[in-house]
UniProtKB/TrEMBL annotation:
Domain of life: Bacteria
Organism whose genome encodes this protein: Streptomyces pactum
Keywords: ATP-binding, Nucleotide-binding
GO molecular function: ATP binding
Keyword DNA damage appears in the UniProt entry: no
Keyword Nucleotide-binding recorded: yes
Protein name per UniProt: ATP-binding protein
Lineage: Bacteria, Bacillati, Actinomycetota, Actinomycetes, Kitasatosporales
CDD domains for this protein: HATPase_RsbW-like
Length: 151
């Protein structure tokens, strides 16, 4: 019988992927999963910014695409990268909304709170697929202390 694995070292890369239907509840589900992932991997200092930015990107995907959305969360010490892919090939534009505007703040928020971000279009029908991916990165300063279980 195989032994239970030890927790991964903090510096070791990992990746999770979540796909969800075009449903307005999807961003909330992804936020809950993101909180769980980042807490389990002791990345608490990144949780609030990651949740805010992921929420903005997934909400835009639900609003402006017609098919399921895919969120990929990747840790490669000391950088967390979150990528959101959907079926709409149009890359969004960064706007600086006025105080009275009710929408259009998503990428402005991304510009302010992400360490780096970008996106790319797959076109309308490239090899039977189309769509785009928008991503952001958050860097972590010092690593948290190693949990007793992993030591």
């Amino acid at each position: 019988m195989p032994k239970d694995p030890f927790p991964m070292p903090f510096e070791q890369p990992w990746e999770y992927e979540i796909s969800f239907p075009r449903d307005p509840r999807g961003p909330k589900v992804v936020r809950a999963a993101l909180y769980t992932m980042l807490t389990a991997h002791h990345l608490d200092p990144l949780i609030e910014r990651a949740a805010l930015l992921t929420s903005e990107l997934t909400t835009n995907s639900v609003r402006y695409s017609d098919h399921p959305v895919c969120v990929r969360v990747r840790w490669e010490h000391p950088v967390l990268r979150v990528s959101v892919s959907d079926s709409n090939p149009e890359l969004p534009a960064v706007l600086k909304p006025g105080a009275e505007d009710e929408c259009g703040r998503g990428l402005f928020i991304l510009e302010v709170f992400a360490d780096r971000w970008g996106g790319f279009s797959l076109g309308k029908e490239v090899f039977g697929m189309g769509g785009k991916t928008v991503w952001f990165e958050l860097g972590l300063g010092d690593p948290p202390p190693i949990p007793a279980l992993a030591a």
